[in-house]
Amino acid sequence: MTANSHRLNKAATSVPPHAWFGISAVFHYLGPSFAVLLFPAVGVLGVAWFRIASAAVIFAPFTNPLKTILQADRRTRLLLLGLGLCLAVMNTSFYLALDKLPMSLVAAMEFAGTIGVALFGLRTRRNLAALALAVLGVFILIDVKWASDPLGLFWASLNAALFVGYIILGHKAAEDGASGGVERLGAAMAIALIILMPIGFVEALRAFGTPTLVLAGIGVGLCSSVIPYVCDQLAMSRLPRSSFALLLALLPATATIIAAVVLAQRPSVQDLIGIALVMIGIAVHRPAKG
After folding, report:
1. Which pLDDT score is estimated for 147?
2. Is 256 a domain residue?
3. Taking the model in full, what pTM does it have?
4. Would 244 be classed as within a structural domain?
5. 83: domain range?
6. How far apart are CA 65 and CA 70, in angstroms?
7. Chunked in runs of 10, what are the mean pLDDT values of the chain (290 residues)?
8. CA torsion sign, 234 to 239 to 241 to 242?
9. Which residues are CB-contacts of 178 (< 8 A; sequence separation ≥ 6)?
């Protein structure tokens, strides 16, 4: 095990997995806010390229993706390829959906897919009750407005399906790999960049002459694909897949709290009820024993 692997593995085991998920939840909503602001200047595909490219470059020095790929067996290489393809298409479809639909609808469709993952593993009545409370809280929090844009709904549906794939493949990478799966994540991100290179690079070129746009693009990658995905891997390495899927109910609650603290947007009574239900659901849940 390399020194970087040892440090990441130590971090994964010494910090509670719920803390790692909490960090991921905070950054999960900072990234899209940067991205949407960049759409007019860089283009949707250009922003997707910046997200993957900057993340791949940031990961490379401490995950050594080429070495990880070369030393992997055939089964692991297929896992890395699948995760890389999933990250490339998922992130692109997410931004294409955001360009056409309200974020609340995209988030609701994304969360709906994770309910199935949680249901598959939450086999006790206590945990099913926890899931029901969390789901009810999420849909109280999310002001879903339906849309009639078929293309936008297609991209949102594709993103939701691939988000489930990310949970399954990411959890597999985390449970089988060293360093909480982060080295495998770095390799998958490099593969995602290769896949996305011919698609978004032309639009991304528009930003290269403006340093502030380049820095903003790097910020999107850091906030959307580096910090949250690393924290996801460190949490996944300690949590059952179904428990991780249930924790995703914290994302809308976190967004509401961040808006209250950072933007001084007072949560309504309905919002507070939704947050309370999510928190109760998380507190009631008990991870399945090994």
Report:
1. 65
2. yes
3. 0.79
4. yes
5. 3-284
6. 9
7. 57 71 77 78 90 93 89 92 95 89 74 71 72 75 70 90 89 68 90 90 87 89 88 81 71 65 66 75 63
8. negative
9. 1, 5, 9
Tally of residues, the chain: 290
Q: Which residue has the tokens 């020095």?
A: 61
pLDDT at 26: 77
Q: How many domains does the chain have?
A: 1
Asked if the structure places residue 290 within a domain, the reply is: no
Residue 94 lies in a domain: yes
3-state secondary structure string across the chain: CCHHHHHHHHHHHHCCHHHHHHHHHHHHHHHHHHHHHHHHHHCHHHHHHHHHHHHHHHHHHHHCHHHHHHHCCHHHHHHHHHHHHHHHHHHHHHHHHHCCCCHHHHHHHHHHHHHHHHHHHCCCHHHHHHHHHHHHHHHHHCCCCCCCCHHHHHHHHHHHHHHHHHHHHHHHHHHHCCHHHHHHHHHHHHHHHHHHHHHHHHHHHHHCCCHHHHHHHHHHHHHHHHHHHHHHHHHHCCCCHHHHHHHCCHHHHHHHHHHHHHCCCCCCHHHHHHHHHHHHHHHHCCCCCC
Cα–Cα dist 104/126, whole Å = 29
